[in-house]
Known about the structure:
Blueprint: E1 3-14, E2 17-28, E3 32-36, H1 43-51, E4 58-63, E5 66-67, H2 72-76, E6 79-82, H3 94-104, H4 109-122, H5 138-150, E7 156-160, H6 168-181, E8 186-191, H7 194-200, E9 203-208, E10 211-217, H8 218-223, E11 225-231, H9 237-241, E12 248-253, E13 256-260, H10 268-277, E14 282-289, H11 292-300
Parallel strand pairs: 3-8, 3-9, 6-7, 7-8
Antiparallel strand pairs: 1-2, 1-4, 4-5, 9-10, 11-13, 11-14, 12-13
Helix pairs in contact: 3-4, 3-5, 4-5, 5-6
Adenosine-5'-diphosphate (ADP) binds next to strand 2 and helix 1.
Amino acid sequence: MPQLINASxxxxxxxxxxxxxxxxxxxxxxxxxxxxxxxxxxxxxxxxMLSGTLAPSAGEIIINGFDLLEQPNEARRHxxxxxxKPPLYEELTVDEYLDYxxxxxxxxxxxxxxxxxxxxxxxxxxxxxxxxxxxxxxGYQQRVGIAQAIIHQxxxxxxxxxxxxxxxxxxxxxxxxxxxxxxxxxxxxxxxILPEVQAVCNRVQIIYQGKSVFxxxxxxxxxxxxxRLRLKHPPELQNLQNIDSVSSVTEIxxxxxxxxxxxxxxxxxxxxxxxxxxxxxxxxxxxxxxTLEQLFMQFTSGEQxxxxxxxxxx
Length: 314
Ligand code: ADP
């Protein structure tokens, strides 16, 4: 898969605040990467740097093979960016605004009409060409924000908190649109909403206090599971450890265990059968998934605890 973003060892200081601290981010064609973190984690700063609107204090950003600092024009051609506060001019119609966005992107005059129509089509704005942006709902205004980000058909789309302030239906529609766009673009989106990452992303990177604290494929995360086992007549621990599909056993208390192993959940019925055959008196066998929520809490409950706002969205 072609590498669309290769950002390494990024730092950003604001006076004494070390907002981004040695962060590295990769994005491949076909990725929808969720940057997840509590408020103040450094997500916006990171996205501004990746989009070329904020200079890093240190680090390197390569966009589709171009160095963003040394070849900014070439690199920025491949990036579409929706900031957390979309740069909309409410007194313009959708068409006027998108034409303006196209001119800012230096799209040749002869191509503006067709690219604008394509962007509108893809964002479900076909019927709103002449509507003043101020008269659109918040959800449709966000679509216009996304349309301006894709008008020049960039390889990478960077979306900063794309569903903030939307109602649940609008949120769902924008998430659907992001999934659609993900078929043709690499996407990075930031959010502090866990279900958003679960609904939309194939990769997740958790950021806390400016650092990347966790980075995984969502598929891998799903596989990160254990079996919880409660037995009324438990055997010696070794007997559980000897089960073929089990790689390790954690004893929480006598008779209560967590079993680890590759694809362990596939072996639930075989393990329960063993318990019955050996007379261990099974009282519970259940999957224990290590959810994104648990990981998020684990990695972001440092000395400051869970940052303001993040807990509200669980
Ligand atoms: P997030 O998007 O995760 O909420 P930000 O990148 O906005 O995080 O902020 C990271 C840290 O940098 C915070 O402590 C914030 O207060 C600080 N910060 C962000 N922008 C500025 C700025 N322009 N001037 C000073 N401090 C800033």
